[in-house]
């Protein structure tokens, strides 16, 4: 037990006023509680009786929540659930916003461990709302930390970084060094996923030093474990094993079963890499028991995957298949449900924000601030009118039906912007007996995307009309240079993905940035080549490639942006996916082009259902 924990116990037991003791307890729960469960619980159980006898609901709820937390961490699920039921039975009577927010944050993690991200997100947002009502807003920052952890689990690393960084700033503003260290540990996890190992190691060494200074052993085990992950990913296996075993030792001493499950999985995976199969099997069996003991399905499916790899390596295919099937089912349950629930959560949040705005307008009406309401209405109308006018401008720059019909025998254009104006565009021009058609997806959608589309069109037109550039790949090179020149000061990576096609009698020449054309000849569908880089600043800035195809009658070319494939929908709220779009094109390719468009639009709307359209949709089909 640490000196800091000794100091807390001494101060806590010396305070005679039970209400002041609870204030000390609230500060303690944020840092030291998972250091020595048995020692502290003996004290809390005594005070629990005092709270119950004196009807101190806030104190009873806080102590029961802490007892539940300790039971869950040690894998005593029934005891933990019993305490949770007692807490929730009195939760509505709890007056302290600090206690309510603390409980809600704990419940959020409990739901996430069990793979129920819908309830997890709901609980953490309620935690943040409660903490905003409190005189002590530290749980607002813990809520942001928790959101960062959930976004990390869902592989939404941009939002994870945002939440962790906001938590760091918040904890720094109130001088909570433990909160800073914990949030920086979260940031290091994202850096590891992004292979920024030097940055991750610096964050972990800093947080480890702080955890050691304040003698928080759970924090030390987290930093040690993640340092092991870095060493494993960089091939330093002996060092990784040492870090993992240090972390496991601390977690065993604290009986921290969630952490033990993690450490056992990490060690087993490393032993598999080192081909120490007998040792790996021992650790995996213990990891499976630990995951089942704390009911952590997210960690359990990883254990089954490693069992499958182990048995495949030692030539036991039946056991390998058995564990793989268990892994596949668990992963589908957890991650499939997580993605669906995340969408629901975002929809709920949007609906809530809309309801709040409408309630504010109603409040303004009720207090007779009609002029303010009228101003809002006027501004909204002005903005909407301006966007509609921008739509007219954008439509004027898109390829006209007459221009397309004059140059293409048989075609369709499926164009469905997410908002009034669009970042996707189809543009065409005639030059020196060639017909050029661009189908592109600009950075962003809505008004920002529309501005980018106008800029992109201007650079394509400049290349072909003014600079007399005829090859599609050189046109893209020119547009990319102009985009980088214009955005060099901002440091952004704005631009476009897309395809530029040049038709010249019986030959087509094209260049593609990310989005490859789909080609059909004699009933056989094929995805053509593309360059894996945008027209704009990217990781690669080599010259674009020119491709040529000699055309014959009844060839079909499809030019597609990513909005159709990225649309969420269907029975489980998942993405449509490019693979399914290609299969659908395969199914309808022999139909007349206008019927193909109808079939595609119907399929999109059925898949989307009541969900919001997530991106602009553009698909052009051309039959030779």
Give an overview in words.
Strands 2, 3, 4, 5, 8 and 9 form a 6-stranded antiparallel sheet that branches. The chain has a 5-stranded antiparallel sheet with strand order 1-13-10-6-7, covered by helices on one side. A two-stranded antiparallel ribbon has the order 11-12. The chain has a domain at 399-623: Phosphatase 2c, domain 1. The model has no long low-confidence stretch (mean pLDDT 84). It is elongated and about 95 Å long. Helix content is 65%, strand content 11%. A hairpin with a 2-residue loop joins strand 2 and strand 3. The protein has 624 residues and is of the alpha+beta class. Helix 3 (37-53) packs antiparallel against helix 4 and helix 20 (446-466) packs across helix 21. It has helices at 3-14, 18-29, 37-53, 57-73, 77-90, 97-113, 117-132, 138-153, 157-173, 177-193, 197-214, 217-233, 237-254, 257-273, 277-293, 297-313, 317-366, 370-397, 401-407, 446-466, 472-487, 578-588, 593-608; strands at residues 410-416, 424-431, 434-442, 495-504, 507-513, 518-521, 524-527, 535-536, 547-550, 556-560, 568-569, 574-575, 617-623.
